[in-house]
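input
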Amino acid sequence: MALTPLEHDRRYGELDQVLRAYIGLPADDTEEKPSEALTAYLRHTWHTRPWALAVAESQLREYARNPPGRLRARLGEFYDPPDVGLGDAEILEWLELLADHIRRSVEEGRVPPSAGPVTHWEWQARFPELGQFLGGWFSQDMPDEFDGHDAAVDDYAETTDPRLVARLVGEIRELLALGLGEGEYAVGVAELGMEVGVPAPYAVSGWLALVAARLGPAAGGREGAG
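output
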């Protein structure tokens, strides 16, 4: 029988997180240096779930040393890794290399320096509720669904649990605290699913600040966003 969600997470949950960080990026790790994808995974995980690094190292090594055989594959009791551009003969050795990098990061304290998100996975992992907000309410269909940006923000506030709204406000403030350039903010909201431009005359950072003020309890209501 196929893996249950619990069994999948127990055996492969953190392995899956590592490999998903590579989607759309090359698996170009070397013995000397982790790839951009693995560096992004390490940076985010050190910041949010440092205990998960040991789990990732263990699951990567276990899979590399004991890949699913024909019986488990036939029964569906296996994890099918996403395509990272490596052949079957290369991927197991590469998984061992990733495990080695993660182990050295933990044992030697090799923590990537703090920085803004670099990869698509890192943007989504670091700002999940902002991704939900921008991807769900500001897709290319937004002009057909709402009268404008204000109406979309109001709809989000009215249909979303207040605790998630508070989380969104916190994520926006964290993003603005990074002090990125406007071009980087534009890249960021696109990575998070926004498919329409911000309303004139605002820059991306200015509009995000207004959204946070509109939704935040200290604003005394939702007046004044672009």
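quick obs: The first helix runs from residue 5 to 20.
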